[in-house]
Design a protein that fits this description.
Layout: E1 5-6, E2 14-15, H1 16-39, H2 46-72, H3 79-96, H4 101-125, H5 130-147, H6 172-179, E3 181-182, E4 185-186, H7 187-205, H8 207-217, H9 219-224, H10 229-255, H11 266-279, H12 288-307, H13 312-338
Antiparallel strand pairs: 1-2, 3-4
Helix pairs in contact: 1-12, 1-13, 2-7, 2-8, 2-10, 2-11, 2-12, 3-4, 3-5, 3-10, 3-11, 4-5, 4-6, 4-10, 6-10, 7-8, 8-10, 11-12, 11-13
GO molecular function: transmembrane transporter activity
InterPro entries: ABC_transp_permease (IPR001851)
Pfam families: BPD_transp_2 (PF02653)
């Protein structure tokens, strides 16, 4: 008898490996949460929970876009740069050109859509491998967002080297996106929750969602079944770009300035959330529920470590270890289970 299997006469055995694969990430998240609640005062309060969601909303929304791109192909490495571009665009629209917050939102969404479509053209029509294409777009967008502002952070009232003074400021309605609350919940968190619910329903409960999964799983079979594979792949990367720009809008609302380094950390957090999602309930594939759980898991971990007084580089180390454990649960152990 396998020592890792518990069997009873007449009943199917329950493998410990199977339990680890399916519930390992959830168990780690639960243990960490209980520990932090026990040792940190008010960690389980509504205010702390809202703070965790608010802190992770930017990367989590970008991760949801990355999840959709991963479903049809591979990880979209340009999401962090696209979020940063939205911060720059928002600052230029409101601070440099003195336009409204609504105009800034529209311009940011258009910028994200353009980046997403660029990724799609390179991948779908020019047949460049997904990771290479999105990596190239990432570097291009990072350079673009700095070139637009001459490498400077745009702030209210600043004067450029050529003597031009910035006439505008961040619109109060735009700043409210991350600054105000709805029924005690930050608006940015509400946006994240709504996007997550809509994406989950679309991907898990509609025919089009199932086609997205089919395109990613076996493009040729999906094509033979009548799916327009290129259209679905194009749509996935375009939507990923738009969601990255939404993340950037929230980040710009939080910063209230055009920080040229904004969005640099979004990519790594989004990748971690998406990959941790592979291990949730043994999915072994990108999925919205897993990405949301990954975002909450990382949020709880970082909030707890921060309140415990650990340095940021120690937090990065622990976050990396958690990601590696999740990948082991998702791939190595699940392969052993199927043997």
């Amino acid at each position: 008898m396998n020592a890792a299997t518990i069997r009873q006469p007449g009943k199917t055995g329950v493998s410990i490996t199977d339990l680890l694969v399916r519930y390992g990430v959830l168990a780690m998240a639960l243990v960490l949460t209980v520990y932090f609640i026990a040792v940190i005062p008010n960690f389980g309060s509504f205010g702390t929970i809202a703070s965790i969601f608010q802190a992770q909303a930017v990367a989590a929304i970008a991760a949801l876009g990355m999840t959709l791109a991963a479903i049809v192909g591979d990880l979209d490495l340009s999401v962090g740069a696209t979020a940063g571009l939205s911060v720059t665009v928002a600052a230029m629209v409101m601070i440099r050109f003195n336009l409204t917050g609504v105009t800034a939102v529209i311009c940011c969404l258009l910028a994200g859509l353009i980046v997403g479509c660029l990724n799609a053209v390179l991948i779908v029509f020019l047949k460049i491998p997904e990771l290479l294409a999105t990596l190239g777009v990432m570097f291009t967008v990072q350079g673009l967002k700095k070139w637009l502002v001459d490498g400077q952070t745009l702030t209210t009232g600043m004067t450029l080297p050529n003597g031009e003074k910035m006439p505008g400021k961040f619109d109060s309605s735009f700043s409210a996106i991350d600054g105000n609350k709805l029924f005690g919940i930050p608006i940015s968190v509400v946006v994240f929750i709504v996007i997550a619910i809509v994406m989950w329903i679309f991907l898990e409960r509609t025919r089009f969602g199932r086609i997205f999964y089919a395109v990613g799983g076996n493009p040729e079979a999906a094509r033979l079944a009548g799916a327009r594979v290129n259209r679905f792949r194009f749509a996935a990367y375009a939507i990923s770009g738009v969601l990255a720009s939404v993340a950037g809008i929230i980040l710009a609302s939080r910063l209230r300035q055009g920080d040229v380094t904004a969005g640099d950390s979004v990519l790594l957090d989004a990748v971690a959330m998406t990959l941790i999602g592979f291990a949730v309930l043994g999915a072994r594939k990108p999925n919205v529920l897993g990405t949301v759980v990954g975002a909450i898991f990382i949020g709880v971990l970082l909030q707890g470590l921060t309140q415990s007084g650990l340095s940021y580089f120690t937090q990065d180390l622990i976050k990396g270890v958690v990601l590696l454990l999740s990948l082991i649960l998702s791939f190595s152990l699940s392969k052993k289970k199927t043997k």
